[in-house]
Design brief:
The structure holds 2 protein chains of 2 kinds. Chain A is mainly alpha-helical. Helices cover about 70% and strands about 0% of the residues of chain A. Chain A contains 8 helices and no strands. Classes of the chains: A mainly alpha, B mainly alpha. The interface between A and B is medium-sized, with 39 and 25 residues.
Chain lengths: ~190, ~170
């Protein structure tokens, strides 16, 4: 938990808002929601690849946070808690949706033009490729590249061995590289 | 970091949810109910009073309340027995005849016991009360019998000795 450090001013603001929220100040809780909503929503959105479901899930996470406010010890703990609960909720929702048809890598439309930096089409393609990964590797990739977490931190959030995290990460990168190279012709290793 | 990882970082950059996201979260917070519970908890959790002590206090109050309610409840059988006890005293002898278990006439206590629905023998005080009633009746019966015997003895000893009749 201690490794998930924030910049000091942000930490101070969050700590203060957290203390006021625990005392029942809803304005302070709204501040917390505003400062963390992008992170929570994006985790869900990248995982589910569905904006509406991601918003619904993010709202549920914040409602659960409201119920568990007294158990949150610090700003770092809040970040850890939000990542952990969002990740678990994403996996739960994904498992409940097993009956629904899932997006396959073959269904991803191939880009019609050559890839250039910050190409929205490439980003969209890659986003869909990530969404087509299996649940746990997908969450590992999202936590690694959206949240910029190290494998050790991911292991703590997902409560799994570090080596498993590393193996998920390597395997996912191989799959994505392979597929992307098929789409774009060449991606540097 | 290779090119793929850079692509991934760009692709997985954070997105903002809809503008009214925070308002919708706040609207879903059950404010009133939570407020009431918080008020109750804050009432119980005075400064310096641990939560388990407050809980123990509430539990004691509940137990005491249930006990008092049970004590205050009138029991039908007891009421009937009480009526028997409070019956207007008439002639001691006739009362005994009336209330005696072996009597053949009207017996209020026995009749009430006969007409009352069968109840499990769980109230120890109810049994003691019946026993006490029977004991009181027995004592009065013994007193009457004793008085009669004394009277008979007195008559026997007070009889003048009759001289033996000769032929």
């Amino acid at each position: 938990v201690g490794q998930l450090a924030l910049t000091p001013p942000e930490t101070d603001t969050t700590e203060e808002a957290l203390a006021r929220s625990i005392r029942g100040d809803q304005t302070a809780f709204a501040e917390i929601v505003r400062s963390h909503q992008a992170r929570v929503f994006s985790l869900a959105y990248h995982f589910l690849h569905d904006r509406e479901s991601a918003e619904e899930l993010a709202q549920e996470v914040f409602l659960e946070l409201y119920r568990n406010l007294p158990s949150i010890k610090s700003a770092a703990h809040l970040n850890f808690w939000l990542r952990k609960v969002t990740g678990h909720r994403c996996i739960d929702l994904s498992r409940r949706r097993k009956a629904r048809p899932q997006l396959s890598l073959d269904d991803v439309p191939e880009p019609s033009a050559a890839a250039i930096e910050s190409d929205p089409l490439l980003e969209r393609t890659l986003h869909k490729m990530v969404a087509s990964l299996p649940e746990k590797p997908r969450l590992v990739v999202i936590l690694r590249y959206q949240e910029d977490l190290e494998p050790v931190e991911i292991a703590k959030v997902l409560n799994m061995p570090v080596n498993t995290v590393k193996s998920h990460l390597q395997r996912s990168l191989v799959i994505l590289r392979e597929k992307l190279s098929r789409c774009l012709g060449e991606v540097q290793a | 970091m290779n090119q793929l990882e850079e692509y991934l970082k760009k692709s997985l950059r954070p997105h903002e949810p809809s503008l009214d996201f925070t308002d919708r979260v706040l609207a879903r917070i059950p404010a009133r109910r939570a407020g009431k519970w918080k008020e109750l908890l804050s009432f119980l959790r005075r400064p310096g009073v641990p939560l388990f002590a407050a809980g123990a206090g509430v539990a004691c109050m509940l137990i005491l309340g249930v006990f008092l309610i049970r004590q205050a409840e009138p029991e039908p059988a007891l009421k009937q027995e009480h009526q028997v006890e409070q019956a207007p005293p008439g002639d001691v002898g006739s009362t005994q005849v009336t209330n005696a278990p072996s009597g053949t006439g009207k017996e209020p206590f026995m009749e009430s016991a006969r007409t009352a629905p069968p109840r499990p023998r769980r109230a120890h005080s109810r049994i003691t009360r019946r026993e006490r009633l029977a004991k009181e009746q027995l004592m009065i019966a013994l007193q009457i019998a004793s008085a009669k015997l004394n009277e008979a003895q007195r008559l026997i000893f007070d009889l003048p000795q009759e001289p033996a009749r000769g032929r």
